[in-house]
Amino acid sequence: MSELERAAAFIIEKCGEEGIIVHRYDAKTSRSIYLKFDFGLGASLRISDHRGIEKYHYKFNLIQGQNRIVTVRYQNQTYCRYYPFRDIWTCLHDIILFRKEAIEKHGGITNYFHEMEKIRQRIERLPEEKLHPFWKHGRRVV
Question: What's the CA gap between 33 and 53, in Å, rounded?
Fold first, then answer.
């Protein structure tokens, strides 16, 4: 199992322990692994051995070879963060914290779950050709 696979397994296991729904998509053209939390309401994580494509912005990025945590801000708000593998616990903590903030933003866990269900139903209703590749080829792992 590669370091990327071990990191993904760790994050999936710990998020599952927190009651977070996790979907996984393995890139077709690189070794990158993408995780979405709570159907995307809890943001997304990209685990990779390279920096990535500029046009895609994942809230959390665990990058092999990254030297330090880098926070990208836009209009005085955190836009995304890049973590070295040695800071995987910090990344996990930030994912869990973001989810808690998202639950509060939605007015509590009941509303949050209701919103997740609406997203799930929307995904299931779309014809396959209109699905984003993540939802077309990804799978629920927790």
Answer: 14
